[in-house]
Amino acid sequence: MIDFVKAELLKVRTTRLWVGMAIGAVGLTGVSTVLFLALSNSANAQASGVRPILTTEDLRTLVFQASGTLAFVLVLAATMATAEFRYGTASGTYLAVPSRVRVISAKSIAASIVGLLYGVAAATMTVVIAVIWLAIVGRSVPVGASVIAAIGQEGLRCAYGAALAVGVGAALRSQLVAILGLLGWLFIVEPLGVALLPRFAKFMPFAGVGGAFGHGSESAVLFGWAGSLALAVVWVASVWASAVSLERQRDV
Amino acid sequence: MSSPADAAPAIEASALTKRFGSTVAVDGLTFSVPHGSVTGFLGPNGAGKTTTMRMLLGLAHPTSGTASVLGRRYEQLERPLASVGAALETTGFHPGRTARSHLRVLCVEGGVPADRVDPVLERTGMSAFATVKVGEYSLGMRQRLAFAAALLGDPSVLVLDEPANGLDPAGVAWLRGFLRRFADDGGAVLVSSHLLTEVAEVADRVVVIDRGKLLAENSVEALVHAGGESVVVRTPDAAGLTLAVRNAGGTVQDGADGTLSIRGIPIERVGELAASAGIVLHELRRETATLEQAFLALTAPEMPG
Questions:
Q1: Which helix (H) or strand (E) holds B105?
Q2: % chain B with pLDDT above 90
Q3: Which of A95, A99, A100, A175 to mutate to test the interface with B (most CBs of B within 10 A)?
Q4: Chain B positions in Cβ-Cβ contact with residue A83 (cut-off 8 Å)
Q5: Domains (ranges, CATH) in chain B?
Q6: By the CB < 8 Å criterion, does A6 face chain B?
Q7: Nearest residue to A149 via CA among A59, A72, A232, A219
Q8: Residues with Cβ < 8 Å from B85, sequence gap 6 or more?
Q9: Chain B residues near residue A87 by CB distance under 8 angstroms
Q10: N or C: which terminal CB in chain B sees fewer CB atoms within 10 Å?
Q11: CA atoms of A124 and A113, how far apart (whole Å)
Q12: What is the pLDDT along chain A (252 residues), one digit of tens a residue?
């Protein structure tokens, strides 16, 4: 399995999509961080819930608020699965590795590793920008363990999203449908669900598992940390099993 | 190449059937490909050749029947790339990846040593283009890269779908020579092609299918022989000769360039018939059926009665 994961990571490294997605994720997170920091002292922003960065806890919150990585990770991970069908490379992959369970598992693990790296990199950048910004304005906020944990949580959230996106991509096969579906779900369906059907939204794959990764509105989080993590595992396992089941039945 | 010691066929299809809804793409197909031979896999467009090859390689699931390579289902091969090399399509490449990267990925996936990449690139004439992205390749270059991928694991069996497509004449000649040497060294090749003259030159055996059904499985020689001989005649009195031949029990068809194609009686008898009827002949020669003619005779659609 390690070789198969290595092969999937090599596939990512030998095309340029990961560079574009990294630039997008880091760029969006950087811009978002600067905007939060610039606006955080204004009365209007504070009225809408943006807090000035005064404590380690504020810095931790900023890591989550400024994150723009997940969407890019979803696109990259979905593409890791769907590009095989878009470009016809699935035949070569299955000739080398006939087990579809192994291929989808390797893709899921590889995508999670990539997602983890993206999430950690972007969250670290948020902290670095914030520390420099605060130093320039003459304020010092210690980077405590909770901020380090937040960076890790952001990485895990992106790893989780990547595993889901690979499963969705493998199940749907169509790159356009998978990407539009994932982004539509993330930016339209779930926010509407949280607002209109909070009872059901608590089980949704992103809002519902926010508690495990430090995200999500409190009203949307039904479960505690462990419960959210369990829900995340259920979602990943369900999507993986669906993708494997479909893929095993289908011709390439 | 590892030379298999057992006498079992390298590839075996048994009652292989594939349905897509109500359409039967492959219908109870049974054939085998022995070691040490090149087997041409022939059939008109839509005959089911590619579907059959995909079933042999585990890419498509048979509705019924079995397909085995080296005595096992493809999925059961421990290191498939080291057993079977397959080139099924020229579109199976990421356009943003280079040839070397494509082959490196396959090496890692297939457990093939990475130092195999450069030799197969060189062998297929792709060394100069190893760092060029596949999106910039011509059809012939893609074909060569597909072939390089097939050779990566140094397999003893090759399954090739239209490998000569897009190759220049030198490339076709190289491919022909390579397949011949590969088979002579004990390897087994199943190669589909619509270039029947190419198949005739390199193949030992042919499997002919149409509408998913097996029409013939034989040596090229036997298939061509079964197509029979004809006598080609050019004469200014075609009507008179036609009448004489038919009275003698032969059949006559209009051939190309105003010739007559006569079957059912030997060339000597045709000459005698013409002489006794006082018919002038401008040309009289024996014509042996080609693989193409034998193929067309096998796959010709039935005329409504």
A1: helix B99-110
A2: 59
A3: A95
A4: 94
A5: 11-225 (3.40.50.300), 229-288 (3.30.70.100)
A6: yes
A7: A59
A8: B149, B150, B151, B152, B153, B155, B157, B158, B159
A9: 91-95
A10: C
A11: 16
A12: 888 999 999 999 998 899 999 999 888 988 988 888 888 777 777 677 667 887 888 888 888 877 888 999 999 999 999 999 999 999 999 999 999 999 999 999 999 999 999 999 999 999 999 889 888 888 887 888 888 989 998 999 999 999 999 999 999 999 999 999 999 999 999 888 888 887 787 888 988 887 677 765 555 556 777 888 888 999 999 999 999 999 999 998
Place of tokens 């099993």: A241
Instruction: Give the span between the Cα atoms of A13 and B115, in whole angstroms.
Output: 19
- Could you list the beta-strand ranges (E) of B48-124: 64-69, 84-87
Q: Is B136 exposed, middle or buried (0-12, 13-18, 19+ CB in 10 A)?
A: exposed
Per-residue model confidence (pLDDT) at position B304: 45
Tokens at residue B228, please?
């029979």
pTM of the model: 0.82
Tell me the residues of B at the A interface, defined by beta carbons under 8 Å apart: 54, 57-61, 74-75, 77, 80-81, 84, 86, 88-89, 91-98, 101-102, 104-106, 108-111, 149
Q: Which of B94, B117, B131 to mutate to test the interface with A (most CBs of A within 10 A)?
A: B94
User: pLDDT tens-digit profile of A182-211?
Assistant: 999 999 998 888 888 877 878 889 888 876
Query: Is residue B247 helix, strand or coil?
Result: helix
Structure tokens at B182: 């590969």
Residue pair B235/B262 in contact by the 8 Å Cβ criterion: no
Structure token digits, residue A136: 């320039």
Helix (H, G, I), strand (E, B) or coil at B31: strand
A203 at B interface, C-beta within 8 A: no
Contact B219, B205 (CB under 8 A): yes
> Do the interacting molecules here have an ipTM over 0.85?
no
Residue A65, both tokens: 């608020």
Closest CA to A14 of B267, B288, B107: B107
β-strands B157-161, B84-87 pairing: parallel
The answer, yes or no, to whether residue B303 has pLDDT greater than 60, is no
CA atoms of A186 and B245, how far apart (whole Å): 82
Sign of the alpha-carbon dihedral angle for B53, B57, B58, B62: positive
Q: Which pLDDT value is given to residue B5? A: 46
Q: Which residues contact A2 (CB under 8 A, 6 or more apart)?
A: none
String of DSSP letters for B217-258: EEEHHHHHHHT-EEEEEE-S-HHHHHHHHHHTT-EEEE-GGG
Any B CB within 8 A of A138 CB: no
Q: Which amino acid is at B265?
A: I
